[in-house]
Amino acid sequence: MSKMRNLFPEIEPFDSGKLKVSEIHDIYYEQSGNSDGNPVLYVHGGPGGGTSARDRRYFDPEAYRIILFDQRGAGKSTPPAELRENTTWDLVEDMERLRKHLGIEKWVVFGGSWGSTLSLVYAETYPDHVKALVLRGIFTLTRRELMWFYEDGVNHLFPDLWEEFVALIPQGERGDLVSAYYRRLTSDDDEKRKMAAKAWSKIELATSCLLVDEELLAKAEGDLWTQQFARIETHYFVHGGWFYSDDQILQDVGKIRHIPATIIQGRYDVTCPMEAAWLLHKKWPEADFHVIPDAGHSAKEPGILHQLMEATDKYKDL
Hints:
Elements: E1 15-20, E2 26-33, E3 38-43, E4 64-69, H1 88-101, E5 107-112, H2 114-125, E6 130-136, H3 143-150, H4 154-157, H5 159-167, H6 177-185, H7 190-206, H8 214-217, H9 223-238, H10 248-251, E7 261-266, H11 274-283, E8 288-292, H12 302-314
Parallel strand pairs: 3-4, 3-5, 5-6, 6-7, 7-8
Antiparallel strand pairs: 1-2, 2-4
Helix pairs in contact: 1-2, 5-7, 6-9, 7-9
C-alpha cells in the first residue's frame, strides 16, 4: 500500500441552514469547500448519529462542494430524537428535497454503516441523480444482521460488555432485546429512557473499532446524543427499515450497477460483519471492492480512512 493518507485540514462551512421537511421536522444542512465544485453528500450513520466537523474532511475542499445534513431527529435537526414521521422513506425524500433546494442535478453520495444503507436506498430510488457512491462498513438492515449484533454474535466476542447490555432487561424479555430496549426508550419514565439510551449506545461504540476507543466511548455518557442515537436506531430496527422485503437492498442492486462505486469493508468489523459487504460485492461486481485486513468498523481505522480518501479523490472530477 502507498503512504497512508489522512483527512484534509479543518474547514468551516460557507453556508448552513434548516430545511422544513414536514409539519414536525426541520433538518440541518451545511455546505463547505468549493461552492462551484463537484457536489458530494455525506450521509451519517446510526440512524440517529448526526454529523460533525470531522465529516467535512474526507473531501478535497478545492474540488468538492461538500454537503452535510443531519437526518430527522439527529444532530442539529429538530425536534431532537423525534420518532413521528421518521422512516427510511422520509429520509430518502428529505435527501431529494435537499438536492432540489440546493439546485443540484447530480451528486456523489458518501455513507458508512447506516449511512451506507440510506445511500444505497436513495440511489436505488433516484439513480439518475447519483454520480457515484462511496460506501463503508456495509449494513443492509436484514434480520440476520440484527440477530448477529443484538441476539447471538457479539456476545461471543464481548461477553463482558454483553453482560452490561442485558443487565437492564429482565430474563423474560431477552428473547427480543431490540424490542425490549425500544419499550424502555419510548417509555414515559425519563430516567428509564436515559439508562437504556446509555447502555444501548455503549455497546455499539465499544465494538466499533478494532481496539476499543476510549474517547469515542465517552459519547455514551451524554444524555442528548444517546437519546437521539438509541431511540432512532431501535425505532428503525423494530420496523425493519420499512422495507418491502428483508433483502430489499440486494434485490434492487440492478437499478444502480451502472453507477461508479467503491465499497470499503473492515475484515474484523463486529458492528456490521463483512458478510453483507460480500453479498453486495457479489451482486455488484462492477463496484471497486476493498477489504481492509487489519480494521474493524470505524472510519477512523487507518486502512479504511486511506481507502476512503482514495475513493473521494477518484470521483472528484466527475
